[in-house]
Specification:
Layout lengths: L11 H15 L18 H11 L4 H4 E3 L3 H11 L2 E4 L2 H6 L2 H7 L2 E4 L4 H10 L3 H9 L6 E5 L3 H15 L12 E4 L7 H11 L3 E4 L6 H16 L2
Parallel strand pairs: 2-3, 2-4, 4-5, 5-6
Antiparallel strand pairs: 1-6
């Protein structure tokens, strides 16, 4: 029988992060830091480590990228008031509700909303696209946490381009932060690159990897740096 490590339940997460640190060192991987990390209470390293913790995939040390203003915008949004909108109920379920409550923030997913389903069918669009249109009309700044649908990212990008060209209504609100980590093959990579090129604040997992669990992990990692001090 192989030996195993006995760890108390309440110590598993801490031990997991110790192992991650050890393996990063063993693989000679240095996690990138942003210029904004110096003065911002939210750092990039805990975000990357939590995604690795969630996925057991060290590729995220390289493919998880941040715009230079991503963390400062995240800090501002989480401390002055925003909502979080996901593209799956799975991502919504994975976002820590205690942390949301401590920050006074609500999280939503419109994918199962009957009116969204009906509108998507009538217009020949995905529910994710219609959900993003609805989120863009929210009366608070929005953090988008997209872990499944590239069409959600494409809709966010196109709406922002229309806004810059003055082709949208007055009820449109510019995204506060886009977490773009959909997983898959069809349109996933181009959609992520569109967000990177958009000029919007972003945290993106380049390539095909991602998922609802990754989107939730990133949101949690941002919030925990403010609620777990």
């Amino acid at each position: 029988m192989k030996e195993y490590e006995y760890v108390l339940p309440e110590q598993i997460e801490a031990r997991s992060f110790e192992i991650i640190k050890e393996e990063l060192t063993a693989q000679n991987i240095t996690l990138r830091t942003l210029a904004s990390d110096v003065d911002c209470p939210i750092k990039s390293e805990p975000v990357i480590k939590r995604v690795i913790h969630t996925t057991a995939d060290f590729d995220y040390a390289d493919n998880l990228v941040f715009s230079e203003n991503a963390l400062t915008e995240a800090y501002k949004l989480l401390t002055t008031g925003c909502v979080i909108v996901t593209d799956t109920n799975m991502a919504l379920a994975g976002i820590n509700k205690s942390a949301l409550n401590k920050l006074g923030i609500e999280a939503f997913c419109y994918m199962a909303d009957e009116s969204v389903i009906a509108e998507a069918k009538d217009r020949g669009l995905t529910r994710a696209a219609v959900s993003m249109e609805r989120a863009a009309k929210h009366n608070k700044p929005v953090i988008y946490a997209i872990g499944n649908a590239p069409t959600a990212l494409i809709t966010i990008y196109e709406a922002y381009e229309n806004y810059k060209n003055a082709n949208v209504g007055t009820d449109y609100h510019v995204p506060g932060l886009v977490i773009g980590v959909p997983v898959g093959f069809v349109n996933v990579v181009p959609a992520k690159e569109m967000i990177i090129d958009s000029g919007l604040p972003y945290i993106v997992a380049r390539g095909r990897k991602g998922g609802s669990n990754v989107a939730a992990a990133i949101v949690n990692a941002l919030m925990y740096q403010l609620t777990r001090r």
